[in-house]
Write a structure and sequence with these properties.
mainly alpha, Growth Hormone, Chain: A
C-alpha cells in the first residue's frame, strides 16, 4: 500500500478503477469541476455551512431541554435523555452509507435530499405528542442527517482551490464546533421563552434556505454515478451491534447492568454481531463500511484520536447543564448561557488556524488542543457546590481555544492522501466512529456520574445515624438555628448530602476526562507529518 502522504511521482503503473490516476499538472481532471470563485463561493460556503450547523446543532440543542421535555411528556429525565442518544446512534449508523449512496445518487442530489429530509424530520419532532413518537422522529432525523457532515467536507474541499483547502476545512470546523456550543444556549432560551417544540422547528427555514442555495449553485457540478451492489448483510450487522450496544449502555443503569438478563443478552448480541461485522466487511467485495481505510496510519491514528476526544467532550457537554439545572437551580436558558462562551475563541481562532495550518505540523497543533482540554477539565474538577457563575464561565471560555485547534488539524490528518473519489467514504467512516463515540460517551458519562454519586453519598452518610451522638447533635443544632422540626432538619441534611455527592461525582468525571485527553496524545504521533491543512486530502482536485 502506498503511503497516504506520498505525492504522485512520474510515470507509474496504471491505477485500479477505484482510484483513478491523477490529472495532468496543468489542471484538474475533466470530471472534477473547477473551484468556485467570488460571490458564488461565498454563498455556497454559507449554504453548506448552514446545513452543517443545523445538523451539529441538533446534537446538543436538546441537552438543556431534557427536563422540560420529560416533564411535558410525563417521563423521567433518564428516559428523556434517549432523545439525545437515539439521534446520535441513528446518525452513526447512517453515516457509513454516505459513500455507497453518493455513488448511486450523486453527491449534490444526496446532500440536498438529506437536508430536505432533515427538515421534515424536524417538523415531526416538533409535533410529537408522546415520547415514543418523539424518539421515532429523532431516529428518522438522525438517520437522514448521516450524509450531511461527510458530504459537507467533500463539497467544500471540491469548491476551493487545492492551496485553499485549509481555509475550507477551517470554515467547516467553525460551524462544526459552534453548533454544539450554541445548542445549549439556544435550546435553553427557546425552551424557557416559547416551547421545546421550537428547538426543532427552527431547522425548517434554515434547512430550506440551505437546500435551495446548494441546489442552485451545485446542480451542474454533480458527481458521476454508478450502481454498486448494497451490502445488505453488512448493513444489518452494523444496525444490530450499534443498536444493541446503545440500548445496553442507556438501560444498564436502570436494570443494574449484568445482573439483568436483558443487559446480558444485549451485550452478547452486540459483541457477536460486531465480530461478524468485522469479518464480513473485511472480506466483502463491496462493503458498506470500508474498514481497509484503517490500514492507513494517518486515518487510523486521526480517527481514533478525534473520536475518543469527541466522546469525552460531548459526554461532559451533556452533564454540565444537567448538573446546573438539577443541583444549582439554574434555568434552562441560564445553563445554556454558561456554556455559550465556549464559542468565542472557537470562532475567532478558526480563520487564523486556516492560515497557520499550511505552515505548521498538524500533529503539534492537535497536541496543544488535547493539552488545553486536559487543563480545562482539571480546572473543572475543582468545582464546589458554592461556585458562582463567573467561575463556571472561565473554564468554558478557555475551552474555546482547544476547540478551535481540534477539528481542523485532525481532519487534515484523517483525509490526507485520499483521492477525491475516496473522500466521502473516508469522511463518512471517520465521522461514523466520532458520532458513535459521542453517543457512547454520553451514556458512559451519565452512568459513571450516577455511580460515583452513589459511592460518595454512601461515604458521606456512613456516620449519619440516629444512634450517632454527633449526628443527633448536628440535627438538633439545625433545628434550633433554622427553627424547624426534626423531619425537616433531616430532609435538609439529606438534600445537602445529595448535592455534595453529585458535585464530588462530577469532579471525578472531570478529572478522568483530563487524564484521558493526555493519554490519547500518542495516537496523534503515530501518524505521518501533515502540512498544508488538508491539501493532500484535496489532492484529487
Amino acid at each position: 500500500m502506498s503511503q497516504p502522504n506520498a505525492a504522485p511521482a512520474s510515470a507509474s503503473p496504471p491505477q485500479p478503477p477505484s482510484q483513478p490516476p491523477s490529472g495532468p499538472p496543468s489542471g484538474p481532471p475533466p470530471s472534477a469541476p473547477a473551484p468556485l470563485e467570488g460571490g458564488q463561493l461565498v454563498l455556497a460556503t454559507i449554504a453548506v455551512a448552514l446545513a452543517t450547523f443545523m445538523n451539529v446543532l441538533d446534537t446538543s440543542i436538546a441537552n438543556v431541554a431534557i427536563p422540560t421535555i420529560s416533564g411535558n411528556l410525563g417521563v423521567s429525565v433518564d428516559e428523556g435523555t434517549w432523545v439525545i442518544t437515539v439521534f446520535a446512534a441513528a446518525n452513526a449508523v447512517s453515516i457509513p452509507l454516505t459513500g455507497w449512496l453518493t455513488q448511486r445518487i450523486g453527491q449534490v442530489k444526496l446532500f440536498v435530499g438529506a437536508i430536505l429530509s432533515f427538515v421534515l424530520a424536524s417538523w415531526l419532532c416538533g409535533i410529537a405528542p408522546t415520547l415514543p413518537i418523539l424518539l421515532l422522529a429523532r431516529v428518522f432525523q438522525g438517520a437522514v442527517a448521516g450524509p450531511l457532515i461527510p458530504l459537507s467536507q467533500a463539497i467544500l474541499l471540491g469548491s476551493y482551490p487545492k492551496e485553499k483547502a485549509s481555509t475550507a476545512l477551517a470554515l467547516w470546523a467553525m460551524t462544526a464546533t459552534v453548533g454544539p456550543i450554541a445548542g445549549p444556549a439556544l435550546g435553553g432560551w427557546i425552551t424557557d421563552s416559547y416551547s421545546w417544540s421550537w428547538i426543532f422547528y427552527i431547522n425548517i427555514p434554515v434547512g430550506l434556505f440551505a437546500a435551495g442555495v446548494t441546489w442552485m449553485i451545485y446542480r451542474t457540478r454533480e458527481t458521476p454515478t454508478r450502481k454498486p451492489p448494497i451490502d445488505v448483510i453488512g448493513l444489518g450487522l452494523l444496525i444490530t451491534w450499534v443498536a444493541s450496544l446503545q440500548i445496553m449502555l442507556d438501560k444498564g443503569k436502570d436494570l443494574d447492568w449484568f445482573s439483568s438478563p436483558v443487559i446480558t443478552v444485549l451485550g452478547l448480541v452486540a459483541l457477536i454481531s460486531f465480530a461478524f461485522f468485522l469479518v464480513w466487511e473485511l472480506t466483502e467485495a463491496h462493503p458498506i463500511v470500508d474498514l481497509r481505510l484503517f490500514a492507513q496510519r494517518n486515518f487510523l491514528g486521526g480517527t481514533v484520536a478525534i473520536s475518543v476526544a469527541y466522546g469525552v467532550f460531548f459526554g461532559n457537554l451533556v452533564l454540565l447543564p444537567q448538573w446546573m439545572q438539577e443541583y444549582l437551580n439554574y434555568r434552562s436558558v441560564d445553563a445554556g448561557l454558561v456554556t455559550a462562551p465556549l464559542g468565542v475563541f472557537a470562532v475567532i481562532l478558526a480563520p487564523v488556524l486556516g492560515k497557520v495550518l499550511p505552515r505548521s505540523d498538524a500533529r503539534i497543533i492537535s497536541t496543544f488542543a488535547f493539552v488545553g482540554f486536559a487543563v480545562v477539565f482539571y480546572m473543572r474538577s475543582k468545582y464546589v457546590i458554592e461556585i458562582d457563575t463567573w467561575h463556571l464561565v472561565i473554564p468554558t471560555l478557555l475551552q474555546g481555544i482547544p476547540m478551535a485547534l481540534f477539528f481542523v488539524p485532525l481532519t487534515a490528518i484523517i483525509l490526507s492522501g485520499q483521492p477525491q473519489s475516496k473522500i466521502p467514504a473516508a469522511a463518512g467512516l471517520s465521522n461514523f466512529v466520532r458520532v458513535f463515540c459521542g453517543a457512547v460517551g454520553t451514556s458512559i458519562a451519565g452512568t459513571a456520574w450516577n455511580n460515583r454519586t452513589i459511592l460518595h453519598h454512601a461515604r458521606l452518610t456512613e456516620q449519619a445515624s440516629v444512634n450517632n451522638p454527633a449526628f443527633a447533635q448536628q440535627i438538633d443544632a439545625t433545628q434550633t438555628l433554622l427553627h424547624m422540626d426534626a423531619p425537616s432538619a433531616r430532609a435538609l441534611f439529606d438534600f445537602t448530602v445529595n448535592t455534595q455527592a453529585a458535585m464530588m461525582g462530577l469532579n471525578d468525571i472531570f478529572f478522568v476526562s483530563a487524564v484521558i485527553f493526555l493519554l490519547i496524545i500518542p495516537l496523534i504521533w503515530i501518524t505521518r507529518p501533515v502540512k498544508g491543512g488538508g491539501a493532500d486530502a484535496a489532492g484529487a482536485h
